[in-house]
Design goal:
There is one protein chain. The chain is mostly helical. It has a domain of 54 residues. It is built from five helices and no strands.
């Protein structure tokens, strides 16, 4: 003797309410397994130490005091090391181009294979 499908579905609904699970009679993939898992954010946040006061925080609090920020100095030095020489090279390159602009370049002659440039 088979039990009616509607009675089985009613039983499944009651079972899901009691055990706090989702009612999914068609077995559609809902991602509920992933959503039920505990969040990893708090565990990861607790793994890393809390942020301490930085030089920038002190500079914002006390703008009148002179402070030394080594990371900022390294950043500025790195920028100056690459930006200033490149602009200097660009300026030197422009000067050479202006001097060369009066000279004419001779066209290059391509000889067929087997002929020498010295033969007349």
């Amino acid at each position: 003797m088979a039990v009616a499908r509607s009675r089985v579905l009613d039983l499944m609904k009651a079972q899901c309410r009691i055990f706090s699970t989702t009612f999914n009679p068609t077995n559609i993939r809902t991602g509920n397994k992933v959503l039920r898992q505990r969040l990893k954010g708090p565990a990861l946040a607790a793994y890393y130490p809390r942020k301490v006061v930085t030089i920038r925080d002190l500079q914002k609090l006390y703008p009148n005091f002179e402070t030394w920020d080594e990371e900022e100095e390294d950043r500025v030095e790195h920028i100056l090391m690459w930006v200033v020489p490149s602009t200097k090279i660009e300026r030197e390159g422009r000067a050479e181009e202006e001097e060369d602009s009066g000279r004419q370049v001779k066209p290059m002659v391509i000889l067929p294979i087997g002929e020498c440039a010295n033969r007349r």
